[in-house]
């Protein structure tokens, strides 16, 4: 019985394991832990379990194995089976089959076993089934098969078949690759953009803690994508504008580094050194990007904004040299940026103490010299924004003088009145107060960028000398270019550049007119001689035979005349210079003016300053200008004619005798001058004989299509010659030219031709047709023939008359023979008779 019972005992397998759960997913609350600690008695049965009995029942009599070993074997078998299943299954292409979404939200694609048909078929039928399976396989299966065959061919060292290559290089694969590249580029751009924003926000929030992130931001500019590089440069610019302190950083010396300092000092030193290194590397990158056409505008914008916002910081000399180098750039955007930054430096000298003004003027002067005055006009127009203060240190002098006078008054009063000396306490208090004030003033000067009055004067003199040096260099260069100098006539540098033959002359003349008050009187005589020669350049150039001479335009010559008058006015006529030559040039330039070629504003300004504002005028000269302006008003548009008529009216109101030109006497005006006949093409206004003529041009101007010109001409023609005092017109030639120019013109002449209505009304159509008489074509033909015969007869009569006159002039044959037969009488025969 015992043996049978032992045979009946069987091994009971252990229960299956629960699903695997990760340790991270298992959560224990604090309440569970406390409950276990309090009720440890409930877990004592675990220690009393007989593990040997369990092993006998589940494993058998084997002493080496336990239940735990059996569980591990089952787990290993499960893993092997899953791996084989995954290897035998192929995932279907997502394009062909829709996925299945589980409750967890995950997508599962359908899978197919590899050996669906070939495993069941016999080896003879396998080859036939392969062809059928190739047609059934999806795209993903074909690609997997092609890859596998390619790998096998490479391992064996064979050539890859063409069919496999064609299967790989399908058009869909190429399109998918392009889409992937585009998506990857967009993703990288967005990632870089977000990273730059994060780093920038960190630096702005706490720059000392995140100062090392500047290096990471600068490293992003090494990318090949242009958008990322531009974004990086602009973002770093915004960070530096906010981070840079209001003082210049001075790195510690070797001795200072050896000294023991506190942690705060070490922290500030590290912050300043890293900031300065990053700033230096950033500027180097900007200078490198400036040469590339893709990044030139962005790099110049960053340089200009840094120099404008932080002109006191380190490496400002490098920034200024970069800005001045591009001040005459052919790119209009870069040129405007550089000019605006230089103007802001000149206007806001409080930021840098005037040191950058001196450096900028010197750099521009060197650039003008190196380029031989062939730069854009904006490079010299920048000087117009410089401010020169004549009262530098005047307040300090007045305060010092007041203190001296007060001390002297006190001493005199003390001697006279014999006052008692002050106590020593009061004296000590005053001395202490004065010392404290001096210390505060010294500290204030050290912190601020305003130098002393002496230093400011020195800087102002240096800038003035550099400015006038460039101006006189430009004047001398123009004199050589028009052929005045014989030494540089054959120089090849006189060829016109990209900006014209004399691009810097106009801004040079404007600057001379503005800053002549700062110029010494010793140099004004030379300046007036230069201006006189430039204004009369056309007369000089006519005598030259060479073709390389460059003539000045009418507007440039008018500017020379204007500058001469402004120089005389600013110096209160302190110079003994005759301005008659400039009046002669203006008299001749009025006829040489062309509206499309020359500037009308310059002409209007010259008429105002030289004719309207001049008080002392000769009668003959005024009459010549009146006549010349009247003829000028007939030849040009509304703006030019209006400015000429305003000047003409002003001259007639100032000079009463010139109103005799308004009379209609036979043979000229009633007041005849030294010249009895009017010379319209005379070069000198005093030799024109304008009083021998009449202003007949006003009669034509009264019929002008513009009502303003016609009315003004009528008022001038009706002026009374007996009035000695008249009110001058408030309108200037400049204002008249600006009001009636084409840009501001609002007048539209009305056409007198009436529009004919070809439409007929339904009701009154027959009545209107009755009033119009019908034309007889026969009578019309007869009249036309008669007129044609009359015209033809007139032409024939003229032809016959010409033939008769020609025949009368010809001598006949008899007259010619008689003239030959007549003997010539000698003078001796006459005496005998």
TrEMBL record:
| Alphabetized SUPFAM superfamilies for the sequence | ARM repeat
**Which cellular component appears as one GO term in the record?**
nucleolus
Q: Where is this region: Disordered?
A: 1-26, 63-91, 119-166, 397-432, 748-778, 800-833
Composition bias type Basic and acidic residues, residue spans: 63-82, 154-164, 422-432, 763-778, 800-809
Any idea where the Nucleolar complex-associated protein 3 N-terminal domain is? 192-282
What's the family?
Belongs to the CBF/MAK21 family.
Keyword Iron-sulfur assigned to the entry: answer is no
Where is there biased composition of kind Basic residues? 140-153, 819-833
What this protein is called in its record is Nucleolar complex protein 3 homolog
Transmembrane domains' residue ranges? none
Tell me which UniProt keywords the record has, alphabetically.
Answer: Coiled coil, Nucleus
The annotated regions of Acidic residues compositional bias extend over 121-135
Q: Work out whether the entry's keyword set contains Nucleus.
A: yes
Q: What is its main location?
A: nucleus
In this protein, which residues make up the domain named CCAAT-binding factor?
Answer: 558-713
Please indicate which superkingdom the organism of origin belongs to.
Eukaryota
Protein's cellular compartments? Nucleus, Nucleolus
